[in-house]
Amino acid sequence: MTLEFILILLVIIMIISFILAKIKKRPKQDFRSVDSVLPEVRERLNSDEDSVKIIKYVREETGLGLIDAKALVDREKGDGTRMDDKELADSVDAMLLEGESEIKIIKHVRTETGLGLKDAKDYVDEVKNKQ
C-alpha cells in the first residue's frame, strides 16, 4: 500500500510540474499602444469590415478587454461628431485654464479619442507643457 501511495504521489507531482512548466513557457506578448492601432482601425472601418473582426484585432494588438475594445471601435465608427486634434487641444487648454480637475480632463480626452488612461494623461501633460 505504501508503494502505491508513493507512485500516485510521484505521478501527481509530475503532472503538476508539467503544468507549471507549460505556464511559464507562455511568451509575454508586447502590446501596441491604442494610438498606433487607430489608423488601421479607421482604415478597416472605412472598408466596411465586420466590427467583430475589428474588435478582435484591437484586443489582440492592444491587450484591451472586450468592453474597452468595443467602445474604441464604436467611438471610431461614431457619427462624425468627434473633435479634431485642434478642437481637442483647445478644449483641454480651456478646461485647464478654468481649473477643471485633471481627472475630468483625462476622462474628456479618453471619451473623445478612445485613448487609454496613460496615453490620455500624457496628452493632457503635453498640452499643459505648451501653456
Please explain how this structure is put together.
The chain has helices at residues 2-25, 34-46, 51-62, 66-77, 85-98, 102-113, 117-130. It is built from seven helices and no strands. The longest helix has 24 residues, at 2-25. The relative contact order is 0.09. It has a domain at 83-131. Helix content is 77%, strand content 0%.
Topology:
Layout: H1 2-25, H2 34-46, H3 51-62, H4 66-77, H5 85-98, H6 102-113, H7 117-130
Helix pairs in contact: 2-3, 3-4, 5-6, 6-7
Pfam families: Ribosomal_L12 (PF00542)
Keywords: Membrane, Ribonucleoprotein, Ribosomal protein, Transmembrane, Transmembrane helix
Transmembrane segments: 6-23
Main attributes?
single chain; 131 residues; mainly alpha; 7 helices; elongated; Ribosomal_bL12_C; Ribosomal_bL12_C/ClpS-like
The stretches of 5 or more residues where confidence is low (pLDDT under 50) are none
How many beta strands in the DSSP annotation?
A: 0
Largest sheet: none
- Binned, the helix content reads over 70%
What is the terminal separation in angstroms? 80 Å
Order of helices and strands: HHHHHHH
Q: Report the average pLDDT across residues.
A: 84
Dominant shape: elongated
Residue fraction in strands: under 5%
SS field, number of helical segments: 7
User: Radius of gyration, Cα only, in angstroms?
Assistant: 23 Å
What structural class do you assign from the helix and strand content?
Answer: mainly alpha
